[in-house]
């Protein structure tokens, strides 16, 4: 099983590639203790971006919309939302190779976000976030030395 840090690093790399190709200037904050992974500049303003790894489940890309601290021995809180601390989630889904830029203002701010790939079975469209509306690019990361994913990459 791959280490969670390696999974996150690969998603951040995919996000940086897609954001750059979409015309954003991308900066990486110094240190590991910020709530955001990237700062993007669209030529008018700066925005804080939290990178997430999405998983394709039941026709939707699902991702954590808060931090979890259950792995700490004595956490003060088990989960912590990003409200007021980031402006966007940038979600990379290896199964779709899509990178999605989602304003935090459009998230319900619960534990998990979802972007629909397949249309809902009941044809509902209200209050549904379709992945295509947020996609900023496709990034295919190929396996590296030893067959481990994430060592090389290309934007499609």
Task: Give a brief rundown of this model.
By secondary structure, this protein is mainly beta.
How many beta strands in the DSSP annotation?
12
Give me the Rg, rounded.
16 Å
* Biggest sheet character: 7 strands, mixed
- Biggest sheet strand line-up: 1-2-3-8-9-11-12
User: What is the succession of H and E elements?
Assistant: HEEEEEEEEEEEE
Unreliable stretches: 150-156
Query: What value does the average pLDDT take?
Result: 84
Which percent band covers the strand fraction?
A: 35-45%
Distance between the termini: 27 Å
Q: Could you explain how this protein is built, in words?
A:
This protein has 1 helix and 12 strands. It has 156 residues and is mostly beta strands. The chain has a 7-stranded mixed sheet, covered by helices on one side. The chain has a 3-stranded antiparallel sheet with strand order 4-5-10, with no helix packed on it. It is globular. It starts with a helix and ends with a strand. Residues 150-156 have low confidence and may be disordered.
Give a topology summary.
Blueprint: H1 4-21, E1 25-27, E2 38-41, E3 46-53, E4 55-57, E5 60-64, E6 66-68, E7 79-81, E8 88-93, E9 98-103, E10 112-116, E11 135-143, E12 149-155
Parallel strand pairs: 3-8
Antiparallel strand pairs: 1-2, 2-3, 4-5, 5-10, 6-7, 8-9, 9-11, 11-12
Task: Please describe the structure with a list of short key phrases separated by commas or semicolons.
single chain; 156 residues; mainly beta; seven-stranded mixed beta sheet; three-stranded antiparallel beta sheet; 1 helix; 40% strand
């Amino acid at each position: 099983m791959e280490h969670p840090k390696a999974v996150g690093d690969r998603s951040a790399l995919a996000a940086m590639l897609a954001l750059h190709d979409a015309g954003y200037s991308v900066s990486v904050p110094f240190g590991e203790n910020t709530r955001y992974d990237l700062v993007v500049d669209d030529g008018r303003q700066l925005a804080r971006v939290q990178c997430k790894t999405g998983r394709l489940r039941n026709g939707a890309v699902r991702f954590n919309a808060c931090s979890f601290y259950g792995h700490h021995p004595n956490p003060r809180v088990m989960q912590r939302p990003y409200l007021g601390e980031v402006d966007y989630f940038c979600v990379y889904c290896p199964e779709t190779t899509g990178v999605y830029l989602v304003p935090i203002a459009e998230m319900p701010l619960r534990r998990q976000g979802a972007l629909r790939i397949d249309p809902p079975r009941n044809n509902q469209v209200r209050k549904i976030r379709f992945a295509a509306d947020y996609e900023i690019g496709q990034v295919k990361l190929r396996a590296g030395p030893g067959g481990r994913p994430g060592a090389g990459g290309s934007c499609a």
